[in-house]
# Entry
Amino acid sequence: MRLLAFGGWGQLGSELAAVARDRHELIRPTRTEADVTDPDAVGRAVADARPDAVLNLAAFHQVERCEEDPGAALAVNAVGAWNVAHSAFLAGARSVYVSTDYVFDGGEPKGYEEVAPVHPINAYGVSKAAGEMLCGLVCPDSLVVRGSGLFGHAGSSGKGGNFVETVLARAAAGEPLSVVDDQVISPTAARDMAERVLLLLERDAPPGIYHAANAGRCSWFEFARAVLDLAGLSAEVSRRSSAGDAVKRPRCSVLLHTTSTALGLPPARSWREALG
Ligand SMILES: NC(=O)c1ccc[n+]([C@@H]2O[C@H](COP(=O)([O-])OP(=O)(O)OC[C@H]3O[C@@H](n4cnc5c(N)ncnc54)[C@H](OP(=O)(O)O)[C@@H]3O)[C@@H](O)[C@H]2O)c1
# Structure
């Protein structure tokens, strides 16, 4: 397949490039070449590439900054999603929008299937929920693929690294860590998520929403402990509550994989296995 990925030079994009090598042709315009907020630039990139599928990995996802400037979050995560999905539609290509567990409010302790109604509780989540909806409206042949707490070799460029790297760096520097213990997620290896995106395209998965987190769940505190145990580092880690944090985040945003299972796709491996 010929794939065109916007936002393809970040954490997930780097892993996508690694897993797509020898399997597909992957074109990754930089942000300077094609900012997703610029419909003309996006349209030109799609017309030049003539792709089978257009992937949108670009995001404004610093949660605190999204809260301060929801217009900027909507411009990238929602209007940008429209621009990319619409160009895909005009080119007769599939569209893939990468999304997040933050579209949920976190009040469901069992976690969320793909069909669960979205109800975001912060500006980032609202902008991504809007992006998901717009993709489906402007390009009916759209896949929305959600992950949660991504970790990968490249680290997130938009967030300045990822949680795993931060924990390891602090521990190596001998700094104590204080980590929230009242938010539960399904950590997602960027490599596994990239592989799942390709698998969905290769199997010609029907349009719709797919969860691509690793299996299992943990609090951020438990995640930090697992990272340190695996690295053989002893560091002081204390639990903290998120009450009083500037931005509300979901308490439980575990992503369950009902759609992939129904299609007979292989189950996701556990986050602990992926971390190793
Ligand atoms: N990281 C997480 O924990 C997490 C969790 C759940 C879901 N997600 C979703 O997963 C996707 C990928 O995340 P990631 O960790 O790979 O992020 P990342 O490392 O920050 O990569 C994002 C990429 O998008 C580019 N970009 C940002 N704004 C753009 C714009 N206006 N136009 C074009 N490109 C733009 C960035 O380019 P520059 O570096 O040049 O700005 C970068 O290449 C995002 O959709 C995010 O919402 C992430």
